[in-house]
Design brief:
The complex is a heterodimer of chains A (437) and B (617). Chain A has 437 residues and is an all-alpha fold. Among the domains of chain A are: 77 residues, no CATH class; 108 residues, no CATH class. Chain A is 65% helix and 1% strand. In chain A, helix 3 packs antiparallel against helix 4 and helix 7 packs across helix 9. The longest helix of chain A has 27 residues. The radius of gyration of chain A is 37 Å and the shape is elongated. Chain B folds into four domains: 140 residues, 3-Layer(aba) Sandwich (Rossmann fold); 180 residues, Rossmann fold (3-Layer(aba) Sandwich); 104 residues, Sec1/Munc18 (SM) protein, domain 3a (Syntaxin Binding Protein 1, Chain A, domain 2); 90 residues, Serine Threonine Protein Phosphatase 5, Tetratricopeptide repeat (Alpha Horseshoe). Helices cover 46% and strands 12% of the residues of chain B. Classes of the chains: A mainly alpha (437), B alpha/beta (617).
């Protein structure tokens, strides 16, 4: 694939696809008439073979109209169709009871043989015969040994009802598998509080914190969400995550403020497409650079303040800011982003990112050639500079570079590419005639 | 020639038998399993005597489609089908209402709503539930709490553990399996795996040898051996079809699914996603195939849905090829078909013409198949020839060959700055981490900060999940052993031949999937030769033997191939499947493979299953 990739493209284009397409088309015209009697499986436009289940669901659900006679399309009947072994969960349950010896089987197993609709009721009842803690734990261990999650859960439901949580927690700590099922079970039935207590007693505080934090996703109202995040701040996160949660809270707090501030005229000129609430920080920074540029550092909505509060890297800040200002065609602001002054007052352009990327971003935002070529000029690598200049038609840069390289030959070649009589053309002529041979 | 008007369906001469025929082509006749599942379904339907309507958990219609068509249900008095929705059930003059559902609590609430709002005076209908693949205490408990348990006549389960997906492929279609096993340490899906393997052994005989690598593999093998002891009385008297079973944990090879698959089928999955054997494609390219006149009138806006399996001759031929070999394959096929149609000029006698005409249906099927795949190939080519695809692939290949995996990667940095889809970023960062045996703390922190700042702080939940599963981790003091693994197992082949492959590395244009190398080495010369590497990968490796009843020992003919079932716990990619098929077809390979898995995955669907807040689609 690698380097060969390009090579294959050519082969692809020229020979193969077009050819097979052509073939397909020519064949089609040949057999157009027979088309109607196509003997292949009919497929509705959505691609479901007609008669497939999902197609039929749609069909019967959407109209009461009878589907009429659907031809028997079943498979060749195998008269001696093999049977699957009957080893449903009922089986594991009975094997579970086997573990309790003959008497237990007599006591409990008959219920299991009843029709299933009956057994479920009595079966819960039958578990209640396990009274002592010891019996209950034996029951749990046997369930775990049977590996059937359904059975384990059934026993756990019973234990949850019949044991104090302190007792249950204590016993679960030494029973890893049962514990996992219990956690899963509590999650399923959304018993958040009990889960929190369980994690605490297990000393799995980080899991607990993350689980609680996760809940913010279910809160729609931004003020409630913010308050909830605030309440998360005291949870025992790992140091890294604690920072992230703090940032998350601060961000939403800021967004609520920013959402309702700003100068009316810019919003009128560039109406917002969406609310800033719950957007990532980089998006928020972009928004700030777009609508709140030039505000003093002290305001919450100013880019500088956001940059500082959220420790945004120089690169990210520059890219985001550049994107926003270029979008507004505020070329002066763009210019200022890169300009640094040394102590003598000389200005110089610097960037934490290669200037070739700056050029790309500006070009994507339809920057005029004058702006573009200034940045193309700042690209250090000469070859890269020329190729960028050619890509974006910055004639001056190309001509000057060849002039500086004293590359007469290239200049002559380039003269052939520009329009005769244009200012570029004249410039090349001038250089060629002035230069020393 | 409109495509979906109801009337056009009614009088179809179909060759429906074809639908399942592809399951019987392979080395092992998987249609037996399908037939068994169908029999089970018929039996359940007959339990509810009288006319019936089925209310579907929509998710199940896909997997069920692999087992049965509507016609089977109709034969058993299923007159209506609805999608499970809250509120009141639609009117239908039937005796039974059957809910086909997964055991999920939220679905129980909907069922309860349906049952409660039923008008009992006017339409006394019986309610039943069929749980797929297992009934669940928890769900029944919920139904009881909702006060509807008593209204249900019949609660049953339809054990659909292993679904025959293709002639050599079985899937449990259990989306959450990896997450459950490796993140939540919930082993329920492993229990189902073991059960599914028991079913398989009941139909195809006891598998004499079990090999495995990984914690979950060990666990499944233990359960199987235990279940066998419990079933000791009811030994199957079937000559074993499989010679051995290889159980592989997904987490011994976290790298492979992260890489972009480069086979035809793999790329279709990467780009459009294949679900339950179907793919949805943008309709534009396919519209042109209809008669020209109509194109302007009703340009379809709905995606074109296509079934993809080996029942289609052309697809079976090209699915596992490297995408760079697809153009040539299609053009060769086009020439053959053109030539076949040209034959009509040579048909002079009535007999010859008859002969030609009789072949027309087959030729037309081949033609439309060729047209479809030419269109798909064009769609995919647009993507594979893009700058972005090339750059991404370059970085992946750098990581896999161990170039600069210990530095912040500027391409990843740029992608974050451009806000490329988060899953793409996560795939790359995880890949770098896996290929470097963890990232330096400083680098890991840097990526994490960039990701959280750009995509939102809530993704710290996802990052935590990735760390827990080992996909992303800080480097510990131990040295990076990935280069050793790569060299020992020859995971990188510098001169992979994409057109005429001689090694499995062609499926990723250079990278040979680790999981499949392990499979290959196990067959020859055996794992003893790579003990060192096996120790570097997580979890135990083991071998177990299962006693066969006397008289069932297979007497192998000279030169007869062995049949191995490879079970991927936690998912397998199409490219890995392609690599195994390649090994099956090798002349001196000596082993043919049947593949089973909890779920067919790709890097994107896999990472998505680990996210706590998946991106909006």
């Amino acid at each position: 694939w690698r380097a060969r990739c390009r090579e294959y493209d050519a082969i692809w284009d020229a020979a193969t696809l077009k050819e097979s397409k052509r073939a397909v088309n020519s064949i089609r015209s040949l057999v157009e008439e027979e088309d109607e009697e196509d003997d292949v499986e009919k497929v509705s436009w959505s691609g479901e073979p007609v008669g497939s289940i999902s197609w039929s669901v749609k069909e019967t659900a959407s109209s009461i109209r009878s589907t009429g006679e659907v031809r028997d399309q079943s498979f060749p009947k195998i008269n001696t169709a093999p049977s699957l072994p009957k080893n449903s969960s009922g089986y594991s349950l009975s094997s579970l009871f086997k573990a309790f010896g003959e008497t237990s089987i007599r006591n409990y197993a008959p219920e299991l043989r009843k029709p299933k609709s009956e057994y479920k009721v009595r079966y819960v009842y039958s578990l209640e015969k396990f009274r002592s803690l010891q019996d209950k734990l034996l029951l749990l261990d046997e369930a775990v040994n049977a590996h059937d999650g359904n059975v384990i859960t059934a026993v756990l439901i019973y234990l949850k009802k019949s044991l104090s949580k302190e007792n249950l927690f204590r016993e679960l700590i030494t029973r890893e598998i049962a514990l996992r099922h219990y956690i899963h079970f509590l999650k399923e039935i959304e018993e958040q509080k009990l889960l929190v207590e369980l994690f605490k007693s297990l000393d799995r505080t980080e899991d607990m914190a993350l689980m609680q934090y996760r809940d913010h996703l279910n809160i729609r109202d931004e003020n409630k969400r913010r308050d909830f995040l605030k309440s998360c701040l005291s949870l025992p996160f790992s140091p890294d995550d604690a920072t992230h949660v703090q940032d998350h809270y601060t961000l939403l707090e800021r967004q609520i403020i920013i959402e309702s501030s700003g100068q009316a005229d810019i919003f009128k000129k560039y109406p917002r497409k969406a609310s800033i609430l719950n957007m990532p920080i980089i998006t928020t920074l972009y928004y700030s650079c777009f609508y709140h540029y030039g505000e003093s550092d002290g305001t919450y909505s100013s880019p500088a303040n956001i940059r500082k509060t959220f420790r945004i890297s120089d690169k990210q800040f520059l890219l985001t800011c550049l994107g926003a200002r270029a979008k507004l065609k505020a070329w002066f602001d763009v210019d200022a982003l890169f300009t640094t002054k040394n102590w003598l007052g000389y200005t110089k352009k610097r960037s934490p990112i290669g200037f070739h990327r700056i050029v790309d971003i500006l070009q994507k935002n339809n920057a005029p050639v004058q702006v573009l070529q200034e940045y193309v000029n700042l690209v250090e690598d000469a070859e890269q500079k020329i190729s960028l200049a050619q890509k974006y038609k910055c004639h001056d840069v190309i001509i000057n570079t060849y002039r500086d390289l004293k590359d007469r030959q290239q200049l002559i070649v380039y003269r052939g590419k520009v329009e005769r009589g244009s200012s570029e053309y004249r410039k090349i002529e001038e250089i060629l005639s002035n230069s020393v041979r | 020639m409109m495509h979906t008007t109801a009337s056009s369906h009614l009088t179809l001469p179909t060759v429906r038998a074809k639908m399942s025929a592809h399951l019987s082509y392979g080395r092992v006749n998987l249609n037996i399993l399908r037939e068994a599942a169908r029999k089970e379904l018929r039996e359940f339907l007959d339990k509810c005597a009288g006319s019936k309507a089925i209310v579907w958990d929509e998710y199940l219609t896909g997997p069920f489609g692999l087992i049965a068509q509507y016609s089977l249900l109709k034969e058993h008095e299923v007159e209506k089908m609805f999608t499970l929705k809250g509120g009141r059930l639609p009117a239908a003059d039937v005796k039974n209402i059957i809910f086909f559902v997964r055991p999920r609590l939220e679905l129980m609430d909907i069922i309860a709503e349906n049952v409660i709002s039923e008008d009992k005076m006017h339409s006394p209908r019986d309610f039943h539930i069929l749980f797929v693949p297992r009934r669940s205490m928890l769900c029944e408990q919920r139904l009881k709490e909702q006060g509807v348990l008593g209204s249900l006549i019949n609660i049953d389960e339809y054990i659909l553990d292993l679904i025959p997906y293709d002639g050599d492929l079985l899937s449990m279609e259990s989306e959450g399996a990896f997450r459950e096993c490796y993140l939540e340490s919930d082993q329920t899906s492993l229990y189902h795996t073991a059960k599914g393997l028991m079913t398989l052994q009941a139909l195809y005989g006891t598998i004499p040898q079990i090999f495995g690598k990984g914690e979950c593999a060990r666990h499944v093998a233990n359960m199987m051996l235990r279940m066998k002891r419990e079933f000791a009385g009811s030994q199957t008297q079937i000559l074993p079809v499989f010679d051995s079973l290889l159980l592989l944990d997904r987490n011994i090879d976290l790298l492979t699914p992260l890489a972009t698959q480069l086979t035809y089928e793999g790329l279709i999955d990467e780009v459009y996603g294949i679900t339950n054997g179907y793919v949805k494609l943008p309709p534009e390219k396919f519209a042109a195939q209809k008669k020209q006149v109509e194109v302007g009138k009703d340009l379809p806006t709905e995606p074109k849905k296509m079934q993809l399996n080996s029942a289609e001759e052309l697809y079976a031929e090209i699915r596992d090829k490297n995408f760079n070999a697809i153009g040539a394959a299609l053009s060769k096929k086009a020439k053959i078909i053109s030539a076949a149609f040209e034959e009509r000029h040579n048909a002079k006698t009535v007999g010859e013409i008859k002969q030609f005409v009789s072949q027309l249906p087959h030729m037309q099927a081949a033609r439309s198949s060729l047209a479809n795949h030419t269109s798909i190939a064009e769609l995919i080519k647009d993507i594979t020839t893009s700058e972005a695809f090339f750059d991404n692939l370059t970085v992946e290949q750098e990581f896999m060959t161990g170039v600069d995996t210990d530095k912040v990667n500027t391409y990843i940095e740029d992608c974050i700055a451009q806000k490329d889809p988060l899953i793409k970023i996560l795939r790359l960062v995880c890949m770098q981490s896996v290929c470097n045996n963890g990232l330096k703390q400083k680098i890991l922190d840097y990526y994490k900060r960039e990701i959280l700042q750009t995509y939102g702080y809530e993704h710290m939940l996802t990052l935590n999940n990735l760390e827990k599963t080992g996909l992303l981790k800080p480097q510990t003091s131990t040295r990076n052993n990935y280069p050793t693994i790569r060299k020992t197992l020859k995971l990188w082949m510098e001169d992979a031949n994409e057109q005429n492959p001689n090694d499995i590395s062609y499926v990723y244009s250079g990278y040979a999937p680790l999981s499949i190398r392990l499979t290959q080495v196990l067959a020859r010369p055996g794992w003893r030769s790579i003990e060192e590497v096996l120790k570097m990968l997580p979890g135990p490796h083991f071998e177990e033997r299962q006693q066969l009843p006397a008289g069932l020992h297979k007497k192998r003919q000279q030169g007869e191939n062995r049949t191995t079932l490879v079970f991927f716990l936690g998912g397998v990619t199409y490219a890995e499947i392609a690599a195994l098929r390649f090994l099956s077809q090798m002349e001196d390979g000596g082993t043919e493979y049947i593949i089973a898995t909890t779920k067919l995955i790709n890097g994107t669907s896999w990472i998505k299953s680990l996210m706590d807040r998946p991106e909006a689609p």
